[in-house]
Amino acid sequence: MNLIEDKWIPVRRKSGKKEKIAPWQVTENMSGDPIVGLAAVRPDFNGALVQFLIGLLQTTCAPKNNKEWRMWRDNPPKPEELKRKFEGVTFAFNLDGDGPRFMQDLTLEKEERKTVEDVEKLLIDAPGEQTLKFNTDHFIKRRRIEKLCLFCVAQALFTLQTNAPSGGKGHRVGLRGGGPVVTIILEDSLWETIWSNVLDLGGFEKLANKDKTDDKDRFPWLAKTRTSDNDRATTAQDINPAQIYWSMPRRVRLISDKGKDRCDLCNELDIVVTQYLTKPYGVMYKNILHPLTPLYRDAKNELFPMHQHENIGYKYWLGYVQAVSDGKRQTAEIINQIIRRGVSGFHLWAFGYDMDNMKASCWYEGIMPVVTVEDENKRRTYEAEIASMIRAADSLAVSLRYGIKDALFNDSQKTDINKFGFVAQRFWQETESDFYQFIAKLREDVMTGKDGSAVKQEWHKRIVRKAEEIFDEVSQSEMIDEVNVKRVAQARQKFLGSIWGKKVRQEILGLPQ
User: Fold this and answer.
1) More confident of the two residues 110 and 476
2) What's the pTM?
3) Residue 186 pairs with which residues in a beta bridge?
């Protein structure tokens, strides 16, 4: 099977029809029934597949400048043209057969001390060794997946290499750490989506060492693995920029089964894989920044990829859509480029695993509508006002958590404040649609020269009333066995003083007293 030539990517067309395509068919029937999205059997596969297509375009079709990028945005290339572009790398995308295989270790079959694993363990949410040893796989059962068809195993393999979590001693994490956040510019068609996330050639070449031009520098599975037995790191100077999209931290080699059977994921009748070989100490990537992942600065002022630990929503606007003014959180490079290109009115698709060391706790994803301002000076004003609105909401969410704690427990009862994260999460979710409406109004004010104070005034009223509503419902819930009316009343008074006080109105939102 070849991942350039064969039809293996599950997609959904505008009409609702689902089918499998080869990568070069992504622009097929654009004027009639265009492909609007991916249709994999798992959400993490969709996240991996969109990065596969972006990486393929970035590797073979990087536009020289904004003008060249717009040519293909306005007039998508015919499938035949894409096929010619992709043919130059077809040799690197064989999934099975002898010799180099996509995302698989070239020499693993001949090495000693390798192990055989069931194919289920390619899935990030499969039970780990400790879970199986202590028989704690209560929610995700062992051996639920015993056979994967070649289509699904290709998706599982790329998903693992892209998100690779810690897997025990020597099992390296992905280039961006285990389960990184990915932010994707989301457009109306799949073609527009993947093309919008491709960097101009100049920005692409700055990611790593463009003078590393051997095929193995782009596709590491074409040569013997650059192992990390002695903690040898692989940095941006050691790789071609393309390898950022094709990183291979895990040493894996599929054991190809000749017979046909039903796939346990998609139920297709096809050649299946049941096991694979593996060995620790694959490529250990260090200090390499990925253009699709936002960043944060640690206490030492070093940049690291961001990871997700709760639902994705406008709470993460600062860092995902626009950078934080103090530089502690930075948007993915692709966001900076799409703004420089003058594109507006798009959505941001953010997703990622919440990893607890070697265990996947949850998969999070969300879509945020993005409203931008082209004029640079007005954009600064607009973004500053949005930042104040989000900080105000964050202040209320914190006050809400502490207010509920004070209402339900006295000072002598030691209670972890994190137990009340659910009320803050509810607050963020129930003010989400309001936020997008208000920033659209704010944009109108900024564009017409107004100061935005009227919008912020209404925003303050809206979020305060929502916080009050949630406080009253939770503090007097029928599920609580015994409500201390006096304590609740005192906590409510303190809570109202906090959310209506000077800090939120004047210091954060800049509103008059």
Assistant:
1) 110
2) 0.93
3) 347
What are 453-467's pLDDT values in tens digits? Answer: 999 999 999 999 999
Nearest to 250 by CA among 286, 279, 216: 279
The structure tokens listed for 364 are: 């999070």
Structural domain boundaries enclosing 454 = 375-513
Q: What number of CA atoms fall less than 13 Å from residue 294's CA on the CB side? A: 28
Is there a domain that residue 205 lies in? yes
Pick from 252, 268, 285: which residue ends a domain?
285
Let me know if residue 107 belongs to a domain: yes
- When pLDDT is cut at 50, 70 and 90, the band that residue 131 belongs to is very low
More confident residue, 302 or 136: 302
Domain count, the chain: 2
Residues 214 and 76 in one domain: yes
Place of tokens 């692709």: 334
311 belongs to a structural domain: no
φ, ψ of residue 54 in degrees (nearest 5): -65, -45
Are both 52 and 194 inside the same structural domain? Answer: yes
**331-357 pLDDT tens trace:** 999 999 999 998 888 999 999 999 887
134 and 254, same domain (yes or no)? yes
**Among 285, 307, 340, residue at a domain's last position:** 285
Give the separation between CA 115 and CA 238, rounded to whole angstroms. Answer: 29
The span from the CA of 161 to the CA of 122, in Å, is: 9
Mean pLDDT, rounded, of the chain: 92
Nearest to 82 by CA among 103, 102, 64, 59: 59
Confidence at residue 139, expressed as pLDDT on a 0 to 100 scale: 42
**Which pLDDT band, with edges at 50, 70 and 90, does 133 fall under?**
very low
Is there a domain that residue 131 lies in? yes
Residues 6+ apart with CB under 8 A from 362: 353, 354
**Residue 196: closest CA among 54, 49, 31, 59:** 54
Comparing CA positions, the residue from 404, 402, 408 lying closest to residue 484 is: 408
Rounded Cα distance, 315 and 348, in Å: 14
The rounded radius of gyration (Å) of the Cα atoms in the chain is 25
Does residue 281 sit in the same domain as residue 380?
A: no
